[in-house]
Specification:
The chain is α+β, with helices and mostly antiparallel strands. The chain is built from four helices and six strands, in the order αββββαβαβα. The protein has a two-stranded antiparallel ribbon with strand order 1-2. It has a two-stranded antiparallel sheet with strand order 3-4. A two-stranded parallel sheet has the order 5-6. Strand 5, helix 3 and strand 6 (about 95-100) form a beta-alpha-beta unit. The protein is elongated. Residues about 1-5 have low confidence and may be disordered. InterPro entries: P-loop_NTPase (IPR027417), PIF1_helicase (IPR051055). This is ATP-dependent DNA helicase.
């Protein structure tokens, strides 16, 4: 990992399974607790704010209404309607973020040749 990237990340260990993860540090203020023990030693603890995130496929996101969505589409998006489904999951436009470059052609109606190919594929699956 490049040192430039490492500056923004910190390695932490989870309590549940002791896995070591890289987490991105934010500019949020971390609460710090300090106390003096009975033996006279000074004890201190800092708490890092973590943001819980999760990822799902576009197919699994159908019928969901989400506050914020980060979409990563690429040239391998195999269905033209898939892009629309991904974008339509977010409640407000301000909650929509694209991780990769987006092409407006992904929302346009497929050509007649593509429609025929899709129809043949549907028929093939039904047989």
């Amino acid at each position: 990992m490049a040192s430039r990237q490492r500056e923004k990340l910190q390695r932490v260990r989870t309590r549940r399974n002791c896995r070591r993860l890289w987490v991105r540090l934010t500019s949020a203020e971390c609460p710090r607790f300090a106390a003096e023990s009975k033996t006279g030693k000074f004890l201190a603890s800092s708490q890092l704010p973590l943001t819980l995130t999760w990822a799902i496929t576009i197919h699994k996101s159908q019928e969901l209404a989400l506050e914020r969505v980060v979409i990563e589409l690429g040239l391998k998006t195999f269905s033209l309607g898939l892009s629309f489904v991904a974008m339509s999951r977010v409640k407000k436009l301000s909650g929509l973020t694209f991780k990769t470059e987006f092409a407006i052609t992904w929302l346009q109606k497929p050509s007649s040749q593509m429609q025929e190919a899709m129809q043949r594929d549907i028929q093939h699956r039904e047989d």
